[in-house]
Queue: 2 jobs
Job 1
Amino acid sequence: MSAAAPLAEYFQAAQSWDADRAALQRRSARLAWLLAAAGWLSTVASVIALAALMPLKRVEPFVVRVDSTTGVVDVVPVYAGRADAPEAVTRYFLTHYLTVCERFNFATAESDYEECGAFHSAQRNQAWSALWNATNPGSPLNLHKDGGSVRVQVASVSFFTRASGLADLAQVRYLKAERQAGGAQEKVSHWIATVQYAYAAPAQDPGIRRWNPLGFKVVDFHAEPEALDPTAKESP
């Protein structure tokens, strides 16, 4: 009986030591899981923060102006599309639009197509794309595939105000001078275009903004021969 007592105490101590080791391992495992969870939460929070900040990162084009007399340098304010544009500016845009978008030359056709798209509303751009589609028999690519060209010269721009007071309509008179491939003579026809226009916020895309920095938009466009010319072709 006396010999079994120390042995029982030894087993009891060993069992207590094993229990302490098991409890320590469980605490270590819980701590490891807590640290891992905290790390994952930090990672997820960082990703969410970066995703939230991404819309704030954008490129803002600007123009630096240097006074030729004093040498003072300043930044030209960027037009935001909220001020009323002078009539002279609208007249320039209409003249430029008609000159570029109604002409045709194979050397500049692709560039002219893209530049005109920078001035279109979404609806007008759909009609523009359909017009230039190679499957359209009336496409300029098909009408002048023999190497012909069309030159445009604007004669006048007139503005109209609606009864509601809204001034968003203009009529542009211009002439088209068509030349056949290898031909020396130009065939001139007179046209009149009715244009509905508007000003919107300028595009953020620098490629579009370099063509259209003020957000001028052609909402609707209709052109027809000014005189009855059976050989003249109507524009969309």
Note: The radius of gyration is 37 Å.
Job 2
Amino acid sequence: MSQSAPTRFPGVFSRLREILLAHEKSYTVGPDTATHYSLNAPIGPATLRVWGGKMRSPTMPVAWVQISKAYVSFHLMGVYGQPKLMDEHSKELKARMQGKSCFNFKTVDEALFAELARLTAASLTGMRQAGYIT
């Protein structure tokens, strides 16, 4: 019998969630369950411009971790808007990317998680400085 996703990856999820918990005081927490944890922020003027001046939502998710069927995904929206942030990171971390802002993990890798923590801080700072969030 195979394990369900929540029971297969709790250690990976927990460790990735810790990366986001370090920033929790500066953001609002969205979903916070055994399989999904999210940080949200009020939208800034740059986001409003991108949205054509129309408020779609007062907040937006900026980073989240979620257990899926095959892995734990770590989403970092600042990397989508600032792809140059990845220039200084290892090929091993880049290999974990799926799309423009998602990193997938099946096991705990402390070296990559330390690198991801630095990237998370830079990403969140960059989103605020660029005016995408306040």
Note: The beta strands are 28-32, 36-42, 59-67, 72-76, 97-98, 102-105.
